[in-house]
Design a protein that fits this description.
globular, alpha/beta, 11 helices, six-stranded parallel sheet
């Protein structure tokens, strides 16, 4: 066991505070990673405040981890000391079910082991990236290409794969019109990736406050959803709409913006249930779908794609002592566009 410093929420809704946690000894197929940077995802806040249901405390959040390998187990074949690596939203799965074998470990039939707020196969709680080090099975570690600096790469481990996976699955590319709802931590990555895939990209945001940013990030068009004229003007326009916001929306209104056979895919996860008139789906044979991160192979594919296209997150680097302030700013949409903790300050 190794004792490391970390920032943890001691109880639901409590401020995070500095503490120490135990990391397991390196097993045969484990990799010990010196964490350099950890992104702050809105889902960290949902879980630390029990917005998505009962959680495990103390909680060390963080599933956007970038660092350097400092030790490997004797059976490790994929990594060596000094490699630049990342860890995303999960650290284990059964490895034997149909989904795991197909590279969709996030949909493990027995349930994947989340990077934090979970219980590992050893029965111990998992602790995330707001810490100095982490020990992870090599099969849940991905390589960060040399073309990406670790600070801007960290958010790709959640925000990057969460948007890349549905954009690829639903065919974002040349000749396709894609809309991204929300220009936040997820949304700004959705814009960058959809643009790099060759799609015509529109941002749908509550106001035009971030319009200049959206256009710089790769959007072709930018509309305010608070303006009723937007929904009239854009009716039937899009092949794909990616919703990245965690607020309940009027899904009927957004479905009206799709072309026939179009899809509205949710990656934001509101805490409240939504109401939906099914006629808004039936008319036009439209699809309302969800998407959860991506498997390990696709996460590596995403990182390689981002390196090839020089795509990193737009970040605000903070010290660990600023985490609680950052949480409030995320809730108030006051970040452009991802907070990243410099873990040397923990």
């Amino acid at each position: 066991m190794t004792t490391v410093a970390a920032y943890a929420a001691p109880a639901a809704k409590a401020p995070l505070e500095r503490t120490t946690i135990e990391r397991r000894a390196v097993r045969e197929h484990d990799v010990l990673i010196d964490i350099k940077f950890a992104g702050i995802c809105h889902s960290d806040i949902h879980q630390a405040r029990e917005g998505w249901g009962e959680a495990i405390f103390p909680m060390v959040p963080g599933h956007e981890i970038a660092g350097i390998v400092s030790e490997v187990g004797p059976g490790v074949t994929k990594y060596k000391v000094g490699d630049r690596v990342g860890v995303g939203c999960m650290v284990d799965s059964c490895g034997e079910c149909e989904n795991c074998k197909a590279g969709f470990e996030q949909h493990c039939v027995k349930g994947n082991v989340p990077t934090y707020n979970g219980i590992g196969k050893d029965g111990e709680p998992t602790y995330g990236g707001y810490s100095e080090k982490v020990v992870v099975d090599e099969n849940f570690v991905v390589r960060i290409p040399e073309g990406l600096s670790l600070d801007v790469a960290a958010p790709l481990l959640c925000a990057g794969i969460t948007t890349y996976s549905p954009l690829k699955k639903w065919g974002a590319g040349p000749g396709k019109k894609v809309a991204v709802i929300g220009l936040g931590g997820l949304g700004h990555m959705g814009v960058k990736i959809a643009h790099a895939l060759g799609a015509e990209v529109t941002v749908l945001s509550q106001s035009l406050r971030k319009k200049d940013d959206g256009l710089k990030l790769g959007a072709d068009h930018y509309y305010a959803t608070s303006d009723p004229a937007t929904f009239k003007e854009l009716a039937g326009s899009f092949d794909l709409i990616l919703s990245t916001v965690s607020a309940p929306l009027d899904f009927g209104a957004y479905l009206s913006l799709l072309k026939a056979n179009g899809a509205l895919v949710n990656v934001g996860a509101p805490e409240e249930p939504i109401a939906l008139n099914l006629f808004s789906l039936i008319g036009g044979s439209k699809t309302l779908a969800g998407s959860a991160i991506g498997g390990i192979p696709e996460t590596q594919e995403m990182l390689d794609f981002c390196a090839e296209h020089s795509i990193g997150a737009e970040i605000e680097l903070i010290t660990a002592s600023e985490i609680n302030e950052a949480y409030e700013r995320v809730v108030n949409s006051d970040v452009r566009y991802r907070f990243v903790i410099d873990t040397a300050t923990i």
